[in-house]
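Changelog note: in this version the structure field was regenerated for every chain. One regenerated record is shown below for reference.
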Amino acid sequence: MEDGYKKKIFNWGISAARTHWNNKNSVKWRLADKLVFAKIREKTGGKLNLFCSGGGALNRTVGEFFEGIGIVTLEGYGLTETSPVVCVNRINKNKYGTVGPPMRDVQVKIAEDGEILVKGDIVMKGYFNQPAETAEVIVDGWFHTGDIGEFDSDGFLKITDRKKSLFKSSGGKYIAPTHIEELVNNLPYVDQIIVVGNERMYVTALIVPDITELKNLAKKIGVNIEFESDLFINPVILKTIEKEVHDVQKNLSTFEKIRKFSLLQTPFTIEGGELTPTLKIKRKFVEEKYKHLIEKMYHKI
């Protein structure tokens, strides 16, 4: 009973962190801080109150959660070729979903095709003994990052994708898959996802679900499952996922929206070849490995 009570308190605290992350004067937050958050912070040494995030996109929900427990997360952006910090959020103005404004004396602009260009003393002189490669990425003093992005109304940079990750639909529309994947990844039962659609009429996705959360979903909607494998084929569960995937994409253009998806029972791993050592999905490898499933979503088998 005591363990069950502690679990309820902990879950209540986690909920408070997510809903009151920017309202630390509320009675609910202060109570949750005393009962839960302070104990979590103690695990980090007890003195940590902020840290910087880089190397990959910070999930907005994760950032807000850590700020909710009293540890501010400042997401930044940079590359090895830029020494490496280009942009970073500030303590006095931290916007999750962006990597902040450019650092002092660093110029950043967006090219016509959406690529992020950087100029300043932080940019490398060039790749060692590789003049041709250097000339490809540094043009008129501007370093071409290979990343796609945009500035918001406050001048904060938002990374939307890698230039190489962009694909074009059969209708000629360019699509940034990472942005779509991030939206769907916010669903609790989605663990991994890859969006497909290059030279296709519409967008599809391969989804690796979180089994525990998928079971919770089944219980929530009143579906009784005898075997774990049934979670991946039950029509009621699939219909529910379809609706929720549709809902999180409501602000996307029609040509960007996932129309069909398949659930995978095997997670993407480094050992399986689907992930790089830095846990990035190898898109071409996965698309080839699951070609049969992908073709099925386009009615070509």
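Spot check on this record: The first helix runs from residue 2 to 19. The first strand starts at residue 50 and ends at 53.
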